[in-house]
Amino acid sequence: MRDQADTRYDVMVVGGGMVGSALAYGMARAGARVALLDEGDLALRAARGNFGLVWTQSKGDGMPAYVRLTRESAQLWHKFSDELSGHAGRDIGYRQQGGLDFCLDEADFAECSARIARLHNQSGIEAPRMVMLDRAELQALMPATRLGQRVVGALLCHDDGHVNPLYVLRGLHAGLRANGGEHLPGPPVTAVEATARGFVAHRADGFVTAERVVVAAGVHTQWLAAMVGIDLQVRPVRGQNIVTERLPRMLPLPASALRQTEEGVVQIGVTYEDGVDQPATTVPGLAGMAARAVRVLPDLANARMVRAWGALRPMTPDGFPAYAASATHPGAFACACHSGVTLAAAHVNRVAPKILAGDLSAFAAFDPARFKGMQHVHAAH
Amino acid sequence: MFTRPTDDLGVTITFEGNAVRARDGDSVAAALLAAGHLVFRETAVSGAPRGPFCMMGACFDCLVEIDSEPARQACMVRVAEGMRVRRQRGAADYASAEAVE
């Protein structure tokens, strides 16, 4: 990267993952001159490690504003998907026909039922459209699927779907470039400072200046945001993934921690591991995931695992997204969430314009000031 | 395409029913390539022909059926006398296999 002291960007985004790329694309599409400061292949990039669900059923229990934002994003995804497929130069694989959460015993079933009731009580008609299916209803929904003997039913959410997250990221980067933005992969940003005319971000290969800065650096958001006066607590929570070889169609709808891609690969998740800072896998983690998947779909028992990986979710203390404007450094913003895929459509269409306008008051419920004095809620999702 | 440095081919396997002579210690993929076989499988999505790409267990393009077991990585399995190898055609279908619950 050349020293870009003479290049004046309207805004630079620190972090080229799912959140930063969506915000950068959204702002470029709205007419801003945008620089996206990204890393390379070694980045702790949840955007390339995540599960690919566009998911409303489990989001926002305890925060109605998050329920609304998630549902709005899911609704925006239909048009957004066509737009991103255009930029990516291929179908990004978005399919929205409903999503499941399999129940393997009556306690599971009761817990899912209670979740529907809670979300409905908190959010009324804005809650996602969810129903419980008993085993016979579930089997009728997917007659060709051989269900494990222990499956007692499932939660079905009509608003849910899935997508290929790698193509989403490619589409966001291509869309940024198509709208005059600059994608700048390279060494990690080491510091962000205020200057007389805006902000400067430093990397080992140079620096970038812009009138505004948005920190959306995943698990690195906290210390970078602190440099511009924003207190946004984020901790890594690891999730492990397995992908199988391509298999005959066996699961027509995506499920929590279990989906089959367009190409036939079955993807199996997932863990919620605190206190780790490396995106590694563990045998107990993978074995537990695989065992549960086989209980749901016994045909997986002899399938081959092709790859497994871990990724670090950026998790806030209450598990809900945080969007912040700096009180001490006007023009500086920070964003963090662990649902970058689901919320991508809202980040592009709703959050990015508000950052450009310099006014996040519409997202006051997501101000990380709410974290003051809060203990991290472990395993929130 | 490939020339062996030795003609010490003491192992015989079959590929699609035809005898293939191999050297003890060959991987199945090496033995088939040395015998001139390039198409190991037909893909699960489009049925396109594929053969080994990485030869080190990463690409999963060399999948074959070995002794009736589907979707084995030919580059990761050593030849054994009498081994029966067939092309992997489409996705492995495990639905008829015995379920482990």
Your description of this structure?
The complex is a heterodimer of chains A (381) and B (101). The mean pLDDT of chain A is 94. In chain A, strands 1, 2, 8, 9, 10, 11, 16 and 17 form an eight-stranded mixed sheet that branches. A four-stranded antiparallel sheet of chain A has the order 13-14-12-15, with helices on one face. Chain A has three domains: 172 residues, FAD/NAD(P)-binding domain (3-Layer(bba) Sandwich); 60 residues, no CATH class; 81 residues, 2-Layer Sandwich (D-Amino Acid Oxidase, Chain A, domain 2). Chain A is 29% helix and 26% strand. Chain A is of the alpha+beta class and 381 residues long. Chain B is mainly beta and 101 residues long. Chain B has a single domain, classed as Ubiquitin-like (UB roll) (Roll), CATH 3.10.20. Chain B contains one helix and seven strands, in the order E-E-H-E-E-E-E-E. In chain B, strands 1, 2, 3, 4, 5, 6 and 7 form a seven-stranded mixed sheet that branches. The longest helix of chain B has 7 residues. The radius of gyration of chain B is 14 Å and the shape is globular. In chain B, 32% of the residues are buried.
Keyword list:
heterodimer, A: 381 residues, alpha+beta, FAD/NAD(P)-binding domain, D-Amino Acid Oxidase, Chain A, domain 2, eight-stranded mixed sheet, four-stranded antiparallel sheet, 8 helices, 29% helix, globular, B: 101 residues, mainly beta, Ubiquitin-like (UB roll), seven-stranded mixed sheet, 1 helix, 29% strand
Rough outline of chain B: globular
CATH C-level label of the largest domain in chain A: Alpha Beta
Span of the ends, CA to CA of chain A: 37 Å
SSE-based structural type of chain B: mainly beta
Question: In a nutshell, what does this entry contain?
Answer:
Chain A is α+β, with helices and mostly antiparallel strands. Chain A has 8 helices and 17 strands.
List the helices and strands and how they pair.
The complex is a heterodimer of chains A (381) and B (101).
Chain A: E1 4-14, H1 18-29, E2 34-38, E3 53-54, H2 64-88, E4 99-103, H3 106-123, E5 130-134, H4 135-141, E6 153-157, E7 161-162, H5 165-178, E8 182-185, E9 191-195, E10 198-203, E11 206-215, H6 221-226, E12 235-246, E13 258-260, E14 265-269, H7 283-296, E15 305-315, E16 322-325, E17 332-336, H8 344-357
Parallel strand pairs in A: 1-2, 1-11, 2-8, 11-17
Antiparallel strand pairs in A: 3-7, 4-6, 5-6, 9-10, 10-11, 12-14, 12-15, 13-14, 16-17
Chain B: E1 11-15, E2 18-22, H1 28-34, E3 41-42, E4 49-50, E5 63-66, E6 69-73, E7 84-89
